[in-house]
Amino acid sequence: MSERFMKTYTQGVMTTMEIWVDKQTGVNYLYHASGYSGGLTPLLDADGKPVVTQISDVDYDYSPKY
Q: Domain-by-domain residue ranges, the chain?
């Protein structure tokens, strides 16, 4: 069984911003963490609507290869 959420973008080390995609709905979420706190919110476009990735595009594995 695959994970429901997939990280597609990450930036920063001590203070990080990440974009996560729900593989069932395609909705993108922005996660921001700094120190011991963090927050998660839907990523919105210019019209205030959630950014949705086509499910067929979500199959690509964006995770870093170490």
A: 5-52
What's the chain's length in residues?
66
What global pTM score does this model have? 0.79
| b/e code 44-55 from CB counts within 10 Å (16+ = b) | eeeeeeeeebee
List all residues 6 or more positions away from 10 whose beta carbon is below 8 Å from its beta carbon: 16, 17, 18, 19, 64
Condensed to tens digits (0 to 9), the pLDDT of residues 29-65 reads 999 999 999 999 999 999 999 999 998 766 655 555 5
